[in-house]
Amino acid sequence: MDQFAEFVGNHLILMTMFTLVSIALIWNLTQDQVGGIPRLSPIEAVQLINHEDALVLDVRESSEYEQGHILDSQHIPLASLSKHLKKLDKHKSKHVIVSCQSGARSLQACHTLKRNEFLNVYNLKGGVLAWHNAQLPLTTEKQLKQKT
Description:
Helix content is 51%, strand content 15%. The protein has helices at residues 2-10, 12-30, 42-52, 62-67, 85-88, 104-115, 127-133, 141-147; strands at 33-34, 37-40, 55-58, 74-75, 95-99, 120-124. It folds into 2 domains: 1-30; 33-147, Oxidized Rhodanese, domain 1 (3-Layer(aba) Sandwich). By secondary structure, it is an alpha/beta fold.
């Protein structure tokens, strides 16, 4: 214990930064909303999809989307979302779950949708990575073509 106290004393700035980063990480992981946008776990998203016929909007790049995506998700890369908002107009009053790889780009997309009067917008917490880690299925265009 003496060595720990000595280490902290000798590395006060490092320990302060470590503490602040740890607090920020824990705070971020426990929040149900970020920037006023509700976050859904993959299981909560499945429930909303099944019970409320929610739209899943995938804002990843095409190469990411082709590697695997949530079944029946609509793909519009974040960079072109503003240009394609008209395509989504019919969903303004529906529940819209926005996904990306980890949840950062989808948060930006959620803000864009909110600014354009979409009423029920949710960010998929942890993105497609969390979806995959929850052992929920992903599909590819190749798999979809094989079924038809």
